[in-house]
Amino acid sequence: MTNSTSTGHNADDSIISIEDLSFSYDIGKTNTLRNISLKIPEGRVTSFIGPSGCGKSTLLRCLNRMNDLVETSRITGGRIEILGQDINAPDVDVIELRKHVGMLFQKYNPFPKSIYENVAYGLRVQGVRRMDILDQAVEESLRKAALWLEVKDRLDASALELSGGQQQRLCIARTIAVKPRIILMDEPCSALDPIATARIEELISELQDDFTIVIVTHNMQQAARVSDQTAFFYLGELVEYADTTTIFGNPKAKQTEDYISGRFG
Amino acid sequence: MPHILRNYDEDLSALKDSVVEMGTMALAAIEKALKGLASRDSDLCYDVVEQDEIIDQQEKKIDELGMAILLRFNPVASDLRHVLSSINICRSLERIGDHAVNVAKRARKVIRSSELDETRLLEPLFAEARKIVSVALTAYSDVDEAMAHEVIKMDQKVDEIHKSLGKSLSQRISEGGCDTEALLNVIFISRSLERIGDLAVNIAEDVVFSTSAEDIRHT
Fold first, then answer.
1. Considering CB atoms only, which of B5, B72, B73 is closest to A202?
2. Which residue in A202, A244, A260 has the most chain B C-beta atoms within 10 A of its own C-beta, making it the best mutation to test that interface?
């Protein structure tokens, strides 16, 4: 793996530390991820890129233990620490972990409830009952998600009435309402048109003041536009991890150069 | 109308500001070289030579900014033309800086000789060279295509002054009884100023390409 030393941050800035991680969906068979090591800095945007099947989404889902839902899957080696805590330790409460590590999916998935209830949902689950606190959190989250001005007069309307781009921003508002430290985004714009995509990308750059963002994308231009660091994966291995400008301007590994310039993949 | 991505607008503005800043440096170099020659101040001329390094570094900075915009934002249409033109313009400005250095170096040689009346003949050419660069830069910063076309017309005057100056200095040399080396240096200065005019035209052509997508080079 080529790990540039010019990532503009040092190891102490990292909020996520992945060490020699291997993972299999079917224990005893081939590892989907092999010996991945990387540190993700706090308050920045990190992109995972690579061809289909390279393991980038699998790694993302390891970060909030979404792969626990696949019964046969196992971490077969190494560890992941978030805020200094081994997230796969036996005493870790997965629900608590996911409060700190929110996730946004490829297909926007608002609940079939009102706009307000979608954003308030996570807080209600946490036991918040006071309406003034909920009202404030809903407004603040919708503002941060750049959706408030578009929906403030129809908070009781169904979330499903919103456009695709608005629904995805609502999902962002729902995610940030519970104040996670990290937001994982799995192809968050792949179902959106270019304008809605640009709005989400602008939002990502605004959100990085408050959150650490890790984004999986097939769209290399998107990785170039939104991220500070980029990691390139191929066949379950991390090939190169560096500043985004280095990855797209002067990649060190030939495989990276070939992939980003469209010579394979 | 701004882009949805604010970073994109910020980077495009930074690119433009850096080019304008580089243009200001190049203009200052021309002015300082003139002042050095007119006041027979060798140190002032030497400053121009020394400070060219700053202009060269600015060129590298602009290249980096332009490349970062290309790779991050994949600009298209007028944005793409703006980035390409800005990079081209910074190349012209770097060469204008080099010509200011040539002028300053020749001026130092002229200053070493006894006072030469013919150096005063350079003054109108200096004024025109300074003016044409200044107008080209304004055309770039104001995105003013009409002004860019004006620059192309202005270069004719620069060429005429250079030609007539060359003619009279050659005649003076052929008459003999003069400081030939010093007069040759004056001719070289005139030549550099004429080249500065040509480079201002290159800037203007880039402005026209950037604003209207029309390639008017070699026409």
1. B5
2. A202
Contact A47, A213 (CB under 8 A): no
Instruction: Please give the Cα distance from A63 to A226 (Å, whole number).
Output: 20
- Tell whether the model's pLDDT for residue A9 goes beyond 70: no
Dist. CA B195–CA B100, nearest whole Å: 10
Is-contact A47 A231, C-beta < 8 A?
yes
Give the ipTM of the model, two decimals please: 0.72
CB A257 within 8 A of CB A22: no
Closest chain B residue by Cα to residue A225: B72
- Say if B72 is an interface residue toward chain A (CB within 8 Å): yes
* Residue B142, amino acid: D
Q: Residue A252 pairs with which residues in a beta bridge?
A: none
What would the pLDDT profile of A198-254 be if each residue is shown by its tens digit?
989 999 999 999 999 999 999 999 999 999 999 999 999 999 999 999 999 899 999
pLDDT of residue B98: 97
Q: Say whether pTM exceeds 0.90.
A: no
Which residues are CB-contacts of A154 (< 8 A; sequence separation ≥ 6)?
A115
Overall residue count recorded for chain B in this entry: 219
- Are the Cβ atoms of A195 and B67 closer than 8 angstroms? no
Secondary structure of chain B as H, E, C letters = CCCCCHHHHHHHHHHHHHHHHHHHHHHHHHHHHHHHHHCCCHHHHHHHHHHHHHHHHHHHHHHHHHHHHHHHHCCCHHHHHHHHHHHHHHHHHHHHHHHHHHHHHHHHHHHHCCCCHHHHHHHHHHHHHHHHHHHHHHHHHCCCHHHHHHHHHHHHHHHHHHHHHHHHHHHHHHHCCCCHHHHHHHHHHHHHHHHHHHHHHHHHHHHHHHHHCCCCCCC
Q: Note whether A245 contacts B4, CB cutoff 8 Å.
A: no
Q: Determine the distance from the C-alpha atom of residue B67 to the mean position of all C-alpha atoms in its chain, rounded to a whole number.
A: 23
Contact A203, A227 (CB under 8 A): no
